[in-house]
User: Which sequence fits this backbone?
C-alpha cells in the first residue's frame, strides 16, 4: 500500500517536473524573437557563425537566432523553395550572382540602414574601401551586406620564374601569353607544366568572368545599359576576348581546357602550373590558422601575387564576386534581422572575419591597412576590389542561363573555332534568352 | 449448411481485407512518391513557372518551345548516342565475363568480388578517379601514352571522345552488376542439357548457341531493359565530369532537365522535358514487354 503511494507521488513529481520544464521553455520562447538564419555550411562560415551568433545572443537576450545550414550550391534553391512554401528564413547568405533574380522577384528586403547603424548611404559607403558598395547596388538599391568579397589576381610560383629568368609578373595579356609560353614545359606535344592557367574551367560563373574581364578592361559590359542587348560581338569585345583566345592558341600557355575548378589549387601547389589567375578565396587555404590545423605549410615554394594583366591601353578592371547577408521580404522580423546583420558586419567583426576566418571583408579601417601590410599577398586583391565590377553588376535575372552560354563560348574558344563566329552566335543566343523574359 | 457458407464468405472477406491492407502500403507509397509527382509534373509542364514567380498557363507552349530548342534536340541526340555506345559493349562484356565466372577456376570468388567493387563504389568517387585518369597532361592514360611515345588524348575535352569516355567509365562501373544478373540466369540452365549435347557431339560453341543463348534470352532481355532505363537516366557522370561539355557534346536529357529546373528555375519547361523522357522510357519498355510476350 505504502509502495503504491510512493509510486503515485513519484509519478506526480515527474509529471510536474516535465510540465514545468516545458512551461518554462514556452515562456522563454514567447519572450524571445526567433530569427531564422540560413547560411552556407562548412569551413570558415561555420567558424564565423559559431563565434558570432552566441555573442550576439548574449548581447541581445531577447533574440534567439536559429541556424540552418545549406551547401553553397543549394542554398539559393532552398531559399526559393522555402519562400514558395511561405516559410523562408529571415536571414540568408547568398552569392552575388544569385541576387538579381531574387531582387527582381521582390523577395529581398532593401537594406535598413538605420538598423545596420548607418545614418545614410554615404556613411555606409565610407565604411568600405572605395567602389565596393557601389558595386553591390542593384537598380540603385542595396540589398545585401558583404560577408566576403573576392577579386581576381595572379598567383605565381617564384621559383619557376627565377628558373626561366623572368624578372616579374606580366602586366598585360600579351606579356602574360609570352611569359606563360616560356614557363610551359612540353614533352612529345604533351604539356608537362602549364605556363598560365586562367580561372578553372567548367563552372559557368568562372567562364563568364573570363570573358567579361577583358571586356570590362576595354570599357564594355556584357549587356547594353538597358539590359536588352548582348554586346559580345561588338568589335571592342572581339578585340578584348582575342587576348584570352591567344593564350590557348598563340602562346599555348594552358592545356587544362575543361578541367574542373576544384583542382586548380592542387595543380598549382604541386608545381604543375607556374602562374594562375584566381580570386582571393584561394588565400583562405594558407591562412595562419589553417596552417596550424594542418601542422604543415601547404606551399612547398614561394608564392607571389600580383594584379591581373590588363589590355594595353585599357583600364584596370577585374571581375569580383561576393557573398552577402540578405533579409527575406517575407520576414516578420526584418528590424531584428538587419540589426543582427549590422552587428555581424561591424568593423571589429569584419576584422575577425578577415583575419581569423579568411572571409575577406574590405572595410576601410586601420586594421585592414595593418592586415595588408602584414600579408602582402593580399595587396593585389584589395586593388582588384577597388576596380572590380561585381558579377551581379550584370543585374539580370537570367544570369545563370547567360553564364551557361558563356561556358559554351569558352568551350569553343578552347577548341579553336573562329572567334568572331563564336561571339556572333553567342550574342545571338544570349539575345534570345533576354527576349524570353 | 447455410452457416458454413456464411463462415466461408466471412473468411474470404477477412482474407480479402488482409490482402487489401497489405497492398495499401505500397499503393500509398507509389501514390505519394511516384504517381503524384508524375501528375504534378504533367500539370506543371502546362505552365510557365520559375519557382519564385507566379505560374502562367501556357498550354502546350513548353512542348512547342522544346521542339525548337536546339539544346534539347542536341540532348536527345546525345542520350541516344550514349545508349548505343553503352548498351552493346556493357551487355556483351558482362555476358562473356559471366560465362567465364560460371566455370570453376582458382580464386573465382575473388575475381567476382573484384569485378563487383566498382558497382558498390560511390559514383562520385568513381567520377573523380576517372577524371584524374583522363587528364590530358597529368592523368594515368597520358602517362601510359607518353611512355609509348604516343601523343596524349584530351579524353574529356575532345568533341568526339568525351561521350565515349563517359561510356567507358560507366561500362566499367556497371559490368559487375550485369555479371551477377547473367550468372543468376546461367545457373538456372539445367546441366543435364549440356551433358546430353556433349553426348550428341556438340562442341562448346554449339552448346552456347543452341542451349545457353536461347535459355538465357529472358535474362538478356531483362538486362537490356535495365541497362536502357539506366542509360536514359544517366546524370551524375556528365554532371560531375563534363558538365555537359565540351560544346554540349555530353549534354543528356537528364542533365538538361536538371539545369533548367534547378539552375535556371524554369520549372514548367523542365517538367515538359521530364514528361517527354517518361514517355520515351515507357515506350521503350513497352517494346521490350512485347518482346517478352512474343516468347
Assistant:
Amino acid at each position: 500500500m505504502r509502495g503504491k503511494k510512493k509510486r503515485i507521488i513519484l509519478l506526480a513529481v515527474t509529471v510536474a517536473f516535465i510540465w514545468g520544464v516545458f512551461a518554462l521553455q514556452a515562456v522563454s520562447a514567447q519572450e524571445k524573437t526567433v530569427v531564422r538564419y540560413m547560411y552556407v555550411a562548412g569551413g570558415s562560415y561555420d567558424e564565423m557563425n559559431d563565434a558570432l551568433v552566441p555573442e550576439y545572443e548574449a548581447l541581445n537576450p531577447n533574440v534567439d537566432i536559429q541556424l540552418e545550414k545549406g551547401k553553397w550550391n543549394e542554398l539559393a534553391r532552398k531559399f526559393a523553395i522555402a519562400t514558395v512554401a511561405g516559410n523562408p528564413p529571415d536571414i540568408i547568405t547568398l552569392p552575388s550572382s544569385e541576387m538579381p533574380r531574387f531582387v527582381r522577384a521582390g523577395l529581398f528586403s532593401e537594406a535598413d540602414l538605420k538598423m545596420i547603424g548607418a545614418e545614410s548611404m554615404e556613411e555606409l559607403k565610407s565604411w568600405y574601401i572605395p567602389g565596393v558598395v557601389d558595386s553591390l547596388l542593384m537598380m540603385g538599391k542595396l540589398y545585401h551586406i558583404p560577408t566576403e568579397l573576392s577579386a581576381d589576381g595572379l598567383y605565381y610560383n617564384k621559383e619557376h620564374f627565377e628558373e626561366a629568368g623572368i624578372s616579374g609578373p606580366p602586366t598585360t595579356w600579351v606579356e602574360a601569353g609570352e611569359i606563360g609560353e616560356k614557363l610551359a614545359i612540353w614533352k612529345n606535344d604533351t604539356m608537362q607544366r602549364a605556363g598560365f592557367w586562367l580561372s578553372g574551367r567548367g563552372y559557368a560563373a568562372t567562364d563568364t568572368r573570363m570573358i567579361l574581364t577583358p571586356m570590362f578592361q576595354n570599357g564594355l559590359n556584357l549587356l547594353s545599359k538597358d539590359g536588352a542587348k548582348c554586346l559580345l560581338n561588338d568589335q571592342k569585345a572581339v578585340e578584348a576576348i582575342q587576348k584570352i583566345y591567344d593564350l590557348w592558341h598563340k602562346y599555348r600557355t594552358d592545356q587544362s581546357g575543361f578541367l574542373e575548378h576544384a583542382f586548380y589549387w592542387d595543380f598549382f601547389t604541386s608545381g604543375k602550373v607556374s602562374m594562375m589567375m584566381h580570386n582571393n578565396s584561394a588565400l583562405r587555404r594558407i591562412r595562419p590558422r589553417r596552417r596550424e590545423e594542418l601542422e604543415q605549410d601547404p606551399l612547398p615554394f614561394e608564392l607571389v601575387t600580383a594584379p591581373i594583366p590588363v589590355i594595353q591601353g585599357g583600364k584596370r578592371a577585374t571581375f569580383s564576386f561576393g557573398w552577402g547577408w540578405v533579409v527575406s521580404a517575407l520576414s516578420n522580423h526584418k528590424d531584428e534581422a538587419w540589426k543582427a546583420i549590422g552587428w555581424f558586419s561591424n568593423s571589429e567583426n569584419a576584422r575577425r572575419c578577415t583575419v581569423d576566418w579568411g572571409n575577406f571583408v574590405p572595410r576601410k579601417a586601420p586594421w585592414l591597412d595593418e592586415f595588408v601590410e602584414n600579408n602582402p599577398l593580399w595587396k593585389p586583391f584589395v586593388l582588384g576590389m577597388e576596380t572590380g565590377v561585381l558579377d551581379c553588376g550584370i543585374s539580370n535575372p537570367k544570369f545563370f542561363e547567360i553564364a551557361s552560354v558563356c561556358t559554351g563560348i569558352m568551350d569553343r574558344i578552347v577548341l579553336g573555332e573562329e572567334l568572331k563566329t563564336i561571339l556572333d552566335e553567342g550574342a545571338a543566343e544570349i539575345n534570345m534568352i533576354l527576349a524570353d523574359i | 449448411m447455410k452457416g458454413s457458407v456464411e463462415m466461408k464468405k466471412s473468411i474470404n472477406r477477412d482474407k480479402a481485407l488482409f490482402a487489401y491492407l497489405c497492398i495499401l502500403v505500397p499503393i500509398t507509397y507509389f501514390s505519394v512518391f511516384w504517381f503524384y509527382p508524375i501528375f504534378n509534373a504533367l500539370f506543371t509542364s502546362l505552365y510557365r513557372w520559375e519557382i519564385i514567380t507566379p505560374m502562367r498557363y501556357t498550354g502546350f507552349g513548353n512542348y512547342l518551345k522544346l521542339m525548337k530548342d536546339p539544346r534539347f534536340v542536341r540532348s536527345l541526340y546525345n542520350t541516344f548516342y550514349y545508349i548505343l555506345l553503352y548498351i552493346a559493349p556493357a551487355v556483351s562484356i558482362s555476358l562473356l565475363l559471366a560465362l567465364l565466372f560460371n566455370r570453376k577456376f582458382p580464386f573465382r570468388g575473388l575475381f567476382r568480388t573484384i569485378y563487383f567493387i566498382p558497382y558498390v563504389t560511390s559514383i562520385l568517387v568513381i567520377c573523380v578517379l576517372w577524371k584524374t585518369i583522363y587528364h590530358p597532361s597529368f592523368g594515368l592514360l597520358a602517362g601510359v601514352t607518353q611512355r609509348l611515345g604516343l601523343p596524349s588524348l584530351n579524353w574529356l575535352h575532345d568533341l568526339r571522345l568525351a561521350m565515349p569516355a563517359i561510356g567507358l567509365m560507366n561500362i566499367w562501373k556497371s559490368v559487375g552488376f550485369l555479371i551477377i544478373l547473367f550468372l543468376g540466369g546461367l545457373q538456372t540452365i539445367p546441366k543435364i542439357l549440356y551433358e546430353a549435347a556433349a553426348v550428341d557431339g556438340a562442341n562448346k560453341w554449339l552448346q552456347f548457341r543452341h542451349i545457353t543463348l536461347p535459355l538465357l534470352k529472358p535474362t538478356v532481355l531483362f538486362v537490356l531493359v535495365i541497362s536502357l532505363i539506366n542509360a536514359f537516366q544517366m546524370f551524375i557522370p556528365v554532371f560531375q565530369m563534363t558538365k555537359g561539355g565540351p560544346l554540349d557534346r555530353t549534354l543528356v536529357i537528364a542533365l538538361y532537365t536538371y539545369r533548367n529546373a534547378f539552375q535556371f528555375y524554369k520549372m514548367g519547361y523542365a517538367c515538359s522535358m521530364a514528361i517527354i523522357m517518361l514517355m520515351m522510357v515507357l515506350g521503350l519498355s513497352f517494346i521490350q514487354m512485347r518482346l517478352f510476350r512474343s516468347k
